[in-house]
Amino acid sequence: MSAAVEASAPEVAAPSSLKQVWAVIKPRRGKGLLSVLLASLSLICAIGLIATSAWLISRAWQQPPILYLSVAVVSVRAFGLGRGVFRYCERLVSHSAALRGLTDLRVRLVERVAVVAPSGMHGIRRGDALRRLVDDVDTSAEFGLRTVLPSATAIVVGACVVGLVGWLLPLGAVILLAGLLAAGIIAPWVTARVGQDAAGRQVHLKGELAADMNSLFSHSADVIAAGAVDARTQPIRDLDSQLVTAESQTARGMGVAAAIGSAAQGLALIGMILVAVPAVRNGELSGVNLAVLVLIPLVAFEIVVGLPSAALWLAKARASSARIVDLLDRRDPVPDPAVIEALRKVGAVASPQLSIEGLSVTWPGSSAPAVTDVSFTLTAGKRMAVVGPSGCGKSSLAAGLVKFAPIEGHAELGGVAYQHLSGEEVRDVVGYCEQDAHIFDNTIAENIRFAKQGASDDDVIAALRSVKLWDWVDSLPRGIHTNVGEHGAQLSGGQRQRIALARIVLADPPIAIFDEPTEHLDPVTAQALTDDILNVMRGRSVIYITHNLYGLDQVDEVLDLGAH
After folding, report:
1. Which among 326, 308, 307 has a CA at the least distance from the CA of 21?
2. Whose CA is closest to 399, among 121, 119, 126?
3. pLDDT at 339
4. Range 343-563 classified under CATH 3.40.50.300
5. Does domain 15-328 sit in CATH 1.20.1560.10?
6. Strands 354-361 and 407-413
7. 401-424: pLDDT as tens digits
8. Widest Cα–Cα separation across the chain
9. Span 166-176, mean pLDDT?
10. Which of 275, 205, 289 is nearest to 242 (CA)?
11. DSSP structural state of residue 9
12. Does pLDDT of 168 surpass 50?
């Protein structure tokens, strides 16, 4: 196992993680009990079908009056129909409960990730995080369906079958019980011993593999250009080899379990014959019931056939739950205050003043601050440029001002201290345009409209006009409803940044922060975009972060972080 996997893998056997996840899912006990009942009835119908068919065939050989057989014939049909109906209903109920629990868990996890993602996801790669949100959630949420339901059903139906056999032949019940215990307890235990650790490792290996694959696909052009395809794919091959080994180990466990189950079934059948035949000779058992007892073991072991898989799913659910809890338990990088009373106060200020004194920003997981001892006052309508060389903390300052990263020192917004404001409150007032603003695989309109839900097409068009994109958009066959492709593949760098600017215009925050909006643009395009940003945002308070000197004559103040 790679060092990366070993370092990130939580303990597989930590049941507390699974309990914590299930507390989020809030299992529907009513639907759970109903699922067990329906599954039990389905299996009982299957056993009843075999038992009644055996009785019918044996009794028909004796040529009794047809009335004696009519009930058995009807029972065969009823059991045959009942098996399918109960199985269908069980699937509806159990999968409905599982899917609702899955939804609850995924929504809770997404909400949590949305809070911690800006600066609290250190140590988790993007592909691995995506796997936790998808596959690990599926595995954890289906624990009840894959493990609890078959185990509970096996107990209920097993007791009923052993009771039926005991009514016909007590010694036969002992033999059947021994066989069921061997297949239902020993086989899953062996499976767990052989393949449980491997099943848990698979979860973490798949997470690492997803992360490496995502990284490779995201930077494939650079990898190919550098001639490093073999070097970058070697870790993927190593992880895949480890995954194959782990899957082989789990397959061996399942193979051993299948062998134990088959052996237990065969021995139970032989044992049943050995005790039933003498019982018939002694008059303790009728010949008709002999056929019933001999055939019951052939179907009774269907009760426990899924328990080895349930044991392996338990291992996977524990490992997946530990990875989910790792996200759920992450501390807020910038915790909101316990009592929030400042929203009305800030919102009442049309253009709130931003006052900073002795501000420092330290990213979670870092021992040294990214920027220290920053002081300024941004009054209404003031435009300030923040300059300095790369690495001096310009972007970190922006992240701190929108509460994406923890800050130290004194900061006030509209006369209210930052520690009394939630992140949502701050970002309602302070708009933020990132250096590489994300463009969604959606239409131009939806890429702009997400900054202000419910905005009309006219509002979107007005924003496009203000950022000088409307002429180009209007020339497109579908206009604002044109899809821009993944990450804005159909857009130029300047167009992507102007769409990001249009979002700010549509949201219309009193204060706007622009973090290196011209970083990847050619000089001519960069200068034009700088002029347009400052013109569009005229009258609003602006913090313009840049390392270029162009446009500094259009701002009211220049803050040089390189001098700190």
Report:
1. 326
2. 119
3. 56
4. yes
5. yes
6. antiparallel
7. 998 888 899 998 888 888 888 888
8. 112
9. 89
10. 205
11. P
12. yes
What pLDDT does 351 receive? 57
pLDDT of 357: 93
Q: Phi, psi (5° rounding) for residue 121?
A: -105, 20
Closest C-alpha among 389, 391, 385 to residue 368 = 391
Distance CA 3, CA 6 (A): 5
Residues of the chain with CATH 3.40.50.300: 343-563
Question: How far, in Å, CA of 153 to CA of 186, rounded?
Answer: 17
What is the identity of the amino acid at 278?
A: P
**CA of 272: how far to CAs of 45, 400, 516, in Å?**
21, 75, 81
Q: Is residue 517 a contact partner of residue 497, using CB atoms and an 8 Å limit?
A: yes
List every span in the chain annotated with CATH 1.20.1560.10. 15-328
Alpha carbon distance 349, 326 (integer Å): 40
pLDDT one-digit tens code per residue, 243-300: 888 888 888 888 888 888 889 888 988 888 888 888 888 888 877 778 888 888 888 8
Phi, psi of 375 (to 5 degrees): -140, 135
Is 15's pLDDT higher than 60? no
pLDDT of residue 9: 40
Assign residue 272 a region: left if phi > 0, alpha if psi is -120 to 50, beta otherwise?
Answer: alpha
Vertex 165: Cα angle to 76 and 57 (nearest 5):
35
509's tokens: 């925050």
Q: For residue 228, which phi and psi values (nearest 5 degrees)? A: -110, 25
- The pTM (predicted TM-score) of the whole model is 0.73
pLDDT digits (tens, 9 = 90+) for 352-373: 789 999 999 988 878 788 889 9
Confidence of residue 435 (pLDDT cuts 50, 70, 90): confident
Q: How far apart are CA 238 and CA 4, in angstroms?
A: 12
The whole-angstrom separation of Cα 186 and Cα 194 is 12
20 in Cβ contact with 325 (< 8 Å): yes
Tell me if residue 408 falls in helix, strand or coil: strand
Enclosing H/E stretch for 113: helix 66-116
Residue 315's alpha-carbon distances to 14, 146, 171, in angstroms, are 10, 11, 37
